[in-house]
Specification:
Elements (H helix, E strand, L loop, with lengths): L1 E11 L2 E11 L4 E5 L6 H8 L7 E6 L2 E2 L8 H6 L1 E4 L11 H11 L7 H11 L15 H13 L5 E5 L7 H16 L3 E5 L3 H7 L2 E6 L2 E6 L9 H5 L4
Parallel strand pairs: 3-8, 3-9, 6-7, 7-8
Antiparallel strand pairs: 1-2, 1-4, 4-5, 9-10
Helix pairs in contact: 3-4, 4-5
The chain binds adenosine-5'-triphosphate and magnesium ion.
Length: 237
């Protein structure tokens, strides 16, 4: 679903954000991307969205080689991807509902469906009571949840999120991860960049670690063990 082949991204002679990166995320996977500040996580996500092009190497997403992709194919390609940006990118002069309605228009949904869709998406992040608020009237964590609702509103093929829980307390973090889990169960492939070690370890998901633009570690998902009979029925011990 997401394939990097020997990808290098150089910004200038002093700054190489990614060095010869090769990795693959298959359809239906849920993968965390981690690494220190400046390791190259956001750069990787921007390459997936084709907000920028690699200096060397190839990126293939949803079966499309992004290097060869025509400009006219970019909007339909981006509609297949739900993106949560590190800085949310909500439109400040629009209410929460209008922000979502705007995306639904881009996605081609008829206006009569917007209220229902927006309400359902906001309900999933517990913000349905804030439909008519403006982004600047919301807390950082609330703005972040609107950004997540917007990214997930149409069950995209791929969900790419940059620090989606960065401003949230531990309870909300678990709630948000649950929302990504559910989107994953409905079929979306999920890639989340995060610093949050505890979140990653608790999830048991596959992890790709970046260090100064290189993949230094790849952990396979922890197999989910069935609970033992003793725990289920309170027998023994
Ligand atoms: N537009 C740019 N021009 C020059 N250098 C850049 C540009 N964007 C990113 N970089 C550099 O590339 C490196 C990787 O940046 P990136 O934003 O991908 O890191 P990150 O892992 O997302 O960090 P953080 O956890 O702080 O968000 C950094 O050294 C950064 O300074
Ligand atoms: Mg970043």
């Amino acid at each position: 679903m997401i394939h990097f082949y020997h990808v290098t991204k150089r910004f200038d002679q002093y700054s190489t954000a990614l060095h010869d990166i090769t990795f693959h995320v298959e359809k239906g996977e849920f993968v965390f991307l981690t690494g220190a500040s400046g390791a190259g996580k956001s750069t990787m996500l921007k390459l997936i969205l084709r907000q920028m092009q690699p200096t060397e190497g190839q990126v293939v997403v949803n079966g499309r080689n992004l290097k060869a992709m025509k400009r006219s194919h970019l909007p339909p390609f981006r509609r297949e991807i739900g993106m949560v940006f590190q800085d949310f990118k909500l439109i400040e002069r629009m209410t929460v509902f209008e922000n979502l309605s705007f995306i639904l228009t881009v996605l081609g949904l008829p206006p009569r469906e917007h209220k229902k869709r927006a309400y359902a998406a906001l309900r999933a992040v517990s913000l349905h009571h804030k439909m008519n608020a403006y982004p600047l009237q919301l807390s950082g964590g609330e703005q972040q949840r609107v950004a997540i609702a917007r990214a997930l509103i149409n069950d995209p093929l791929v969900i790419v999120a940059d620090e989606p829980t960065g401003n949230l307390d531990p309870d909300l973090t678990q709630e948000i991860i649950q929302i990504f889990n559910e989107a994953n169960l409905r079929g979306s492939t999920v890639l989340i960049a995060t610093h949050d070690r505890e979140l990653i370890e608790r999830s048991g998901r596959r992890v790709i670690t970046l260090d100064h633009g290189r993949i230094t570690d790849e952990k396979a998902p922890v197999p989910q063990r069935a609970p033992r009979a003793e725990t289920l029925f309170g027998i023994g011990g």
